[in-house]
Design a protein that fits this description.
Blueprint lengths: L5 E6 L3 H12 L4 E7 L2 H11 L3 E4 L8 H11 L4 E4 L8 H8 L4 E3 L8 H19 L29 E7 L3 H9 L8 E7 L3 H11 L6 E3 L5 E2 L4 E6 L2 E8 L2 E8 L8 H13 L3 E5 L8 H9 L3 E5 L8 H9 L4 E3 L1 H11 L6
Parallel strand pairs: 1-2, 1-3, 3-4, 4-5, 6-7, 6-13, 7-10, 8-10, 13-14, 14-15
Antiparallel strand pairs: 9-12, 11-12
Helix pairs in contact: 2-3, 6-11, 8-9, 9-10
Length: 353
Amino acid sequence: MAKALYKILVVDDSSLIRQAIVDIINSSDDLQVVGQASSGAEALALIPKLKPDLVTLDIIMPGMNGLTTLKHIMIFSPVPTVMLSSLAQEGADITFDALRYGAIDFIAKPSKLENSEVLKNQARQIIQKIRLAARVKVNAIQYIRVNPKAKIELGLPLQKACKNIVALGVAEGGYGTLLKIILRLTPYPATAYMVIFYETSAHVDGFIKYLNQYTAVKVQRPQNNTLLEAGVCYISSGEEYVTVHGQRGSVVSYVSPAPFSSRRGTIDMLMFSVAETVGRYSLGVVLSGEGTDGSEGLEEIVRVGGGAIIQAPVSCLYKGMALSALDMCEAEVVVADTEIAAEIVKFLPKLNF
């Protein structure tokens, strides 16, 4: 068997669950469990000694729960962490909290109630997500501190009409990346943010509800045949085709169901329409995800004089989209997701010249 490349610490108060996770992880030839902990306190004591490449962490544990343990890990011994719990489901606030506190990803625990084929699929997913998360560099991990309903006073009058657009595209690995960005976006004169996120509509709705507890900008779904407003961040799923049309100062969004949502191209579609509608008054951002969607659209935004930001592949959970965009066009900025919001804010004055 090949030498294990990544050392894993498994944390769960149930010995049966710990063993099940250990068996799954050790079935991979590049992952190796080097320690187990039954509590948060025990995990915090083991991390400096074992120096694991990744920690799997249950959310609900007696004493110090998983979220409190995660906060301590991020502050005192930062290490890539994957939340593995029956509560770690897409669309759940507790999942978003974990990602905001610095977790790389989340995985549902395997269940004995599932049939053998489902269990095999769960095991493959656990191995894949742990493998990807273990590759993330520690400096790409961040504990995002926010205040509920934080509002930022810029001293700049907001115009209701949208003249400038920041278009972002993201797929797999998108929750954590978008949290690092959207929670730090600011309202800016005449500027709207538009995000294509390859997730189901139901999960996007849950994410929007969560974000609106903390964001300085208003977050909502785009509506068909509706004027875009400045200071708003519009998020749509990969199940929709979203484009913009009109002129600067009168930009309308068009939304329709995607008949072939499995054939990715929604990010390119949005970015092409943004380039055509507002031209050099646009900024395109390509983030984590599999595939190549966004590359051609970003190239078009650059061609018409707009700006381009690409998430540094080393900070992507899934690198395909970022690598494809780098091959396709010259981006002004290539940075980790922890720095993208600051780069967007830095670029915004250029959209108003």
